[in-house]
């Protein structure tokens, strides 16, 4: 079984930066896909960034060029470096993991509890 714990959220001004971390339990981190999703009040959950088993990365158009996803297999941790933050980035950010991330329905993923990111103008 997999347990995911996010950290690193907080309140920042527009243009600032944050780095989110997601620590995963077990020793399967290197063979499963990991991703970051976010959900703002009244909006649907959306993919922010993902890194799959083949280390391919995916980014939503809204964050491309500003956010970077990376992983440290030795620490079983995935990161999301968030630069040039905008008020529109305000949301709860969730870490997700699955052997077939982006292929299987999201309801089947392992999910963290989320971390709040708030960007003020």
Question: Can you describe this structure?
Answer:
The protein is an all-beta fold. The protein has no helices and 11 strands. It has strands spanning 4-7, 10-13, 18-24, 33-39, 46-51, 57-59, 67-72, 77-82, 91-98, 110-111, 115-120. The strands form 2 sheets. Strands 2, 4, 5, 6, 9, 10 and 11 form a 7-stranded mixed β-sheet that branches. A 4-stranded antiparallel β-sheet has the order 1-3-8-7, with no helix packed on it. The radius of gyration is 13 Å and the shape is globular. The N and C termini lie far apart (40 Å). The relative contact order is 0.31.
Radius of gyration, in angstroms, nearest whole number? 13 Å
Share of residues in strands: over 45%
The average pLDDT is 92
The total count of strands amounts to 11
Tell me the major beta sheet: 7 strands, mixed
Using the alpha-carbon principal axes, give the shape: globular
Point out poorly predicted stretches. none
Strand-pairing-aware structural class: mainly beta
Number of helices: 0
Q: How helical, in percent, are the residues?
A: under 10%
Could you give the distance between the termini?
40 Å
**Elements, N to C (H/E):** EEEEEEEEEEE
Layout of helices and strands, plus pairs?
Blueprint: E1 4-7, E2 10-13, E3 18-24, E4 33-39, E5 46-51, E6 57-59, E7 67-72, E8 77-82, E9 91-98, E10 110-111, E11 115-120
Parallel strand pairs: 2-11
Antiparallel strand pairs: 1-3, 3-8, 4-5, 4-9, 5-6, 7-8, 9-10, 9-11
């Amino acid at each position: 079984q997999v347990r995911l714990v996010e950290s690193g959220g907080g309140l920042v001004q527009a243009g600032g930066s944050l780095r989110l971390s997601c620590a995963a339990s077990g020793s399967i981190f290197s063979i499963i896909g990991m991703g970051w999703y976010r959900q703002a009040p009244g909006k649907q959950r959306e993919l922010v960034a993902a890194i799959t088993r083949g280390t391919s990365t995916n980014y939503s158009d809204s964050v491309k060029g500003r956010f970077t996803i990376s992983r440290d297999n030795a620490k079983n941790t995935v990161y999301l470096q968030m630069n040039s933050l905008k008020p529109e980035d305000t949301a709860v950010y969730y870490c997700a993991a699955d052997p077939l991330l982006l292929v299987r329905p999201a309801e089947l993923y392992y999910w963290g509890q989320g971390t709040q990111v708030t960007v003020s103008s």
